Amino acid sequence: MFRCGLKGKFKKDFQLKKDKLYHTDIAIVGDEVLFDVNRDGTGIIHTINPRRNYLSRKAPKIRGSSYRGERLEQIVAANIDNFFIITSVAEPPFNNKVVDRFIVAGESSHLNVIIIFNKIDLDENNLIDSWAKLYESIGYKVLKTSIIGNERLDELKNLCTGKINIFWGQSGVGKSSLLNKIFPALDLETGSVSGSTDKGLHTTVTSVQLKVDKDTFVIDTPGIREIDPFGIRKEDLCHYFLEFEKYSSDCKFNTCTHNHEPGCKVTEAVENNQITSERYESYLRILETIEEDIIF
Ligand code: GDP
Ligand code: ZN
After folding, report:
1. Domain membership flag for residue 160
2. By the 8 A CB rule, do 207 and 219 touch?
3. In sequence order, what are the beta bridge partners of 141?
4. Nearest CA to ligand 1 atom 18
């Protein structure tokens, strides 16, 4: 483990671009970097390799950082193999709107999205099944897990092994519990009921990439719970609702946002139950939030 600083050139570049700054960080968790080792054993990063992919979001509003209501892009983590969206069937109750928002974040960042329904031991009447089937029908890998009885945990572990993984989900859904079960050495704190909200940018809560073995990692991003996808244009949102694609390409207008434009094949598919109203409502809700986004 080397404690590294950044070579001055990065900071200078960053300073120069300040008034058209898009990103809030130079090197971020998951980055592959090259560095020189100083005599005292610390390092100086001189190269940041191109990112294969990265998860980003609109940075929380901080004083002085934005003008005219514009928002910066905050890169949360880079070079991610698996983006696990963790939900629970109860405690907290399943919320499909949250899942759909996370899917948009994952898809727009070109990540491999896997959906976990945890705490299925609490789902006596199999109420979650129809949701699981919906996401499977869209093409997502879905696992129904439980730390009580270790349901599907071997499979979860296999999916994670040899990869760089990120577990994303609301507080209390069981992210830390699942990780501790499959990789006990991580020894993460569980059941914290602090209810702390998003910590914003400039706090000491740092994201870390935890090493499980030579080539298995888990990125932990404490303090970042919300992810408001960054830089999506209205007419592009439908690309991240994968089952819409089949219909959206036939809409009358190629700028169709599938809201109330005439000749919209997506709204027609919703009426014909080819697209579920639940997914369509999620879509409309996210579409509303895109209004105030940065125009590039
Ligand atoms: P995190 O905030 O997503 O990391 O959630 P935690 O791992 O801290 O878990 C929150 C609570 O849910 C803890 O009290 C866990 O014991 C509990 N929990 C986690 N997984 C399961 C599960 O599969 N079934 C049940 N019944 N409880 C679980
Ligand atoms: Zn349309």
Report:
1. yes
2. yes
3. 114
4. 174
CA of 206 to the centre of ligand 2 (A): 41
Mutate which of 156, 171, 177 for ligand 1? The one with the most ligand atoms within 8 Å of its CB, which is 177
Running DSSP on this structure, what letter comes out for residue 201? Answer: S
Task: Clarify whether residues 247 and 273 are in a common domain.
Answer: yes
State which of 159, 194, 220 marks the end of a domain: 220
Q: Which two tokens stand for residue 113?
A: 């999205």
Beta strands in the chain (DSSP E): 4-6, 33-37, 43-48, 54-58, 73-78, 82-88, 113-118, 141-144, 164-168, 208-213, 216-220
- Domain containing residue 264: 234-290
Determine whether the shortest distance from the Cβ of 151 to ligand 1 is under 6 A. Answer: no
**Ligand 2 centroid to 153 CA: how many Å?**
40
The bound ligand whose nearest atom lies closest to the alpha carbon of 256 is: 2
- Asked if 196 and 223 touch (Cβ cutoff 8 Å), the reply is yes
Shortest-distance Cα residue to atom 9 of ligand 1: 174
CB of 190 within 6 A of ligand 1: the answer is yes
With respect to residue 37, please indicate whether it lies within any of the assigned structural domains: no
Closest ligand 1 atom to the C-alpha of 145? 23
Among 190, 220, 221, residue to substitute to test ligand 1 (most atoms within 8 Å of Cβ): 190
93 preceded by cis ω (within 30°)?
no
The alpha helices in the chain, defined as continuous H runs, are 8-16, 96-108, 129-138, 153-160, 175-182, 245-248, 265-271, 277-290
- 79 and 210 share a domain? yes
> Please, what are the averages of pLDDT over each run of 10 residues along the chain (296 residues)?
89 64 76 96 95 87 54 86 97 96 94 97 94 98 95 97 95 94 93 53 67 94 78 92 96 94 97 97 93 50
Q: How far apart are CA 134 and CA 142, in angstroms?
A: 10
Asked if residue 103 and residue 206 are part of one domain, the reply reads yes
